[in-house]
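In practice, a research group might receive sequence data for several interacting partners and want a quick structural hypothesis before committing to experiments. The following worked case mirrors that situation: the sequences arrive first, and a predicted assembly follows.
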Amino acid sequence: MTYNEFKKIVKISKEEISGQILERNRDSIKVKKEEKVIENLIRIIDATLKICSKKSFQAMSIRDLSAESGLSGGALYSYFSSKEELLVLIQTQGREIANRVLVDQVVKSSDPVEKLRIAIKSHIYLSEAMRNWFYFTYIEARNLPKNEQKLAIESELQTEKLFIDIINGGIEEKVFRDENVVLVASVIKAMLQDWYLKSWKYRNRKVSVDDYADFVIHVAESILLI
Amino acid sequence: MTYNEFKKIVKISKEEISGQILERNRDSIKVKKEEKVIENLIRIIDATLKICSKKSFQAMSIRDLSAESGLSGGALYSYFSSKEELLVLIQTQGREIANRVLVDQVVKSSDPVEKLRIAIKSHIYLSEAMRNWFYFTYIEARNLPKNEQKLAIESELQTEKLFIDIINGGIEEKVFRDENVVLVASVIKAMLQDWYLKSWKYRNRKVSVDDYADFVIHVAESILLI
DNA sequence: GTCTATACATAGATAGAC
DNA sequence: GTCTATCTATGTATAGAC
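A structural hypothesis for the assembly, expressed as tokens:
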């Protein structure tokens, strides 16, 4: 699988995401026409992610968001009841998509070596396709309210668990070495995150997403393969 | 070298750091008595790092900082001329210390394998000894003004260059495999950063700093050693 | 040198016209 | 549904007393 193939397989339509957000947040969204909601949620989220790729969510004012999204400050509050709720909304949805796509891809194989490759590639490709979204989810997690922070941590650990399980499977089948599984999963995750946390660096150096994915697989297999 | 030995060798005294900051910022610091400055800079920086381990620098108000440091809002402005300047001051000093200690340690050996081990251990141990400081430097870099952001990026690339040079040395001496040097250095750096970005995770799992350093060395050598 | 009091700007959020 | 106008809170930064 290459990045281009991945993009064709995994349809992440903005309309669909927006629809899911509407389902989850019926209470806070005051606008009744669903089409309007879908359309404007896309504009709001796109604007937020764009602004927050340059400055922090805290530093983004409602007036900034108004200017970038094309909706007035007053209108924005028809789609969320506080700025913090907007943060929670985007983060929750981001985690949901990431987890769903990843799990969907991994179940496609039962061979541990293949599963590990798929998991690494899917994660990197997904974080490339939704770079701003991933960056935002990571970097703004600390500004979430306490209980939402807990959910973010759980989600992080769940993703790691996915790798832990794959590696354990490989050790049982004697295709992987008996390494410290938790640490191997941790460093794989660190490498995956580097792709979207330091995208500026890899772009400047003309490292393609396929190059990077192949390299991370190479590293993982250097540690694990017998 | 273990973490405890490292701490004995590398003296990172708060007074010394504070003194260097004074040298660099004579213009902004209005208080004349040097002892006072040293003492209060320590209190201000400790307070800032403590608060910012829980919330962002933007979210920290001068009133917060006043309460935590024990100085009034007015007094704080005798030590910096704006909140942004305080951010720059801490970040600049943090990068300076990190770079100095790392370079000092690495020159102790001329053997590439040994150099790589020293570099990895020094970085992880240093980031452990100054965990809040490293976390702050990483996470708040994006809130720096444009020109200071450039310096932060340069510093990041310089640290990576140190690893690149070591690896290239090893390849020349035919003790390391002829891998993609830039990518190897990148992922080593990603692993190093994970230690202080996810310190909560490693603490919960009772992974000691020595365990982690040894594991990162193990990974690096799995990729590189012939 | 440090405090209290306060000026001034900007933020989030709401009300009511359209 | 969206706008403009505005309320209120909070933040940074300063002035002047001690």
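Before designing any experiment, note the following. The two ends of chain A are 24 Å apart (CA to CA). Residues 3-224 of chain A form a domain with the Tetracycline Repressor; domain 2 fold (CATH 1.10.357.10).
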